[in-house]
Write a structure and sequence with these properties.
3 helices; 0% strand; mainly alpha; 71 residues
Length: 71
């Protein structure tokens, strides 16, 4: 499932190389997929809280990326 989503992004969005938009698309797809996999895994909730925090920090970084604008 994750592989199909990432390959779809590479095929449809990677015509101009790895730019900020493509980095966001790939990163958010991977973070969401990992969070979904972890949510169905049978792991103790106290061990997952740090993992969700790290995934949230990565997602926040990716959503906070700004493209450089020439003024």
């Amino acid at each position: 499932m994750v592989t199909v989503a990432v390959l779809g992004i590479f095929k449809s969005k990677m015509k101009n190389g790895l730019g900020p938009f493509n980095l966001r698309a790939i990163g958010i797809t991977l973070v969401a997929s990992l969070a979904a996999i972890l949510s169905i895994a049978e792991i103790d909730a106290s061990k997952l809280s740090a993992t969700y925090g790290i995934l949230g920090a990565i997602a926040g970084y990716l959503f906070g990326l700004n493209e450089k604008k020439d003024d």
